[in-house]
């Protein structure tokens, strides 16, 4: 089985897809293409490209700004795959970076405001959803104390956080807090951070939003 690796880290859209398409065309037999990229948007575009070719693909986050997209290449594609590629190829488009450098959102609890907990959770869910609909997105979201629950399995806001991460927002959750609540293994989006990085991020932020 043929195997190829394309290192597209540091390349601007649409170059990761362009290079992957070229590599797929060079396969002489069925095999696996691994594409290395450094952002979630590239992952989504590569998976969309694979779907258009009728190929199976999976993305995996390897580390901070490190992703690998694995594409199962079938040399003898069927006519339906070719038609899908022809019909959908132009749909892949680069998404503009709408983040505001130096803007940080701090979520120190899984509720918004005081009062009834049920209301507070509903307000926080609405706040995070509203973030996804802003013309200008934060550069970073910091989650600590009970705010750590927001980025873990079972959170009502996971889809919204994943959408923000796909748009390049850096989502960081306090490791000490995850350990304290016993939910470190349930982290489902973003990365684990520490107090040094939290302080540094807040110090360097041009503006900090606290709901």
Q: If you had to describe this structure to a student in words, what would you say it looks like?
A:
The chain is α/β, with parallel strands linked by helices and 211 residues long. The chain has 2 domains: 2-91, 2-Layer Sandwich (Translation Initiation Factor IF3), CATH 3.30.110.40; 99-209, 3-Layer(aba) Sandwich (Hypothetical Protein Ychn, Chain: A). The chain has 7 helices and 9 strands. The protein has helices at residues 15-25, 40-53, 79-88, 117-132, 158-166, 175-181, 195-204; strands spanning 2-7, 31-37, 56-63, 66-73, 99-107, 137-143, 170-174, 191-193, 207-209. A 5-stranded parallel beta sheet has the order 8-7-6-5-9, sandwiched between helices. The chain has a 4-stranded mixed beta sheet with strand order 1-2-4-3, covered by helices on one side. Helix 5 links the parallel strand 6 and strand 7. The longest helix is centred in the middle third of the chain and has 16 residues, at 117-132. It is elongated and about 65 Å long. It starts with a strand and ends with a strand.
Number of strands: 9
Give the terminus-to-terminus CA distance: 53 Å
What is the overall number of helices?
A: 7
CATH H-level superfamily of the largest domain: DsrEFH-like
Give the mean pLDDT. 88
> How big a fraction of the residues is strand?
25-35%
**Gyration radius, to the nearest Å?**
20 Å
Query: Looking at CATH, which topology of the largest domain would you report?
Result: Hypothetical Protein Ychn, Chain: A
Sum up the overall morphology in one term: elongated
What's the domain count?
Answer: 2
Query: Can you write the helix and strand succession as a string?
Result: EHEHEEHEHEHEHEHE
Low-confidence sequence ranges: 78-90
CATH class designation of the largest domain: Alpha Beta
Taking strands numbered 1, 2, ... along the chain, how are they ordered across the largest sheet?
Answer: 8-7-6-5-9
């Amino acid at each position: 089985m043929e195997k190829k690796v394309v290192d597209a880290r540091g390349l601007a859209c649409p170059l990761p897809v362009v290079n992957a398409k070229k590599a797929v065309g060079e396969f002489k037999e069925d095999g696996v293409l691994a594409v290395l990229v450094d952002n979630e948007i590239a992952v989504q575009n590569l998976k969309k490209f694979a779907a258009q070719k009728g190929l199976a693909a999976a993305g995996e986050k390897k580390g901070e700004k490190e992703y690998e997209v694995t594409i199962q290449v079938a040399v003898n594609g069927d006519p339906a795959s070719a038609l899908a590629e022809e019909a959908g190829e132009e749909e892949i488009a680069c998404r503009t970076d709408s983040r505001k450098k130096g803007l940080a959102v701090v979520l120190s609890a899984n509720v918004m405001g005081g009062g009834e907990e049920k209301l507070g959770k509903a307000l926080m869910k609405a706040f995070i959803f509203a973030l996804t609909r802003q013309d200008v997105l934060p550069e970073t979201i910091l989650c600590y104390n009970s705010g750590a629950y927001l980025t873990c399995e079972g959170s009502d806001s996971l889809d919204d956080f994943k959408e923000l991460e796909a748009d390049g927002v850096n989502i960081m959750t306090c490791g000490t807090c995850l350990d304290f609540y016993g939910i470190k293994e349930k982290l489902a989006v973003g990365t684990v951070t520490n107090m040094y990085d939290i302080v540094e991020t807040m110090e360097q932020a041009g503006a900090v939003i606290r709901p």
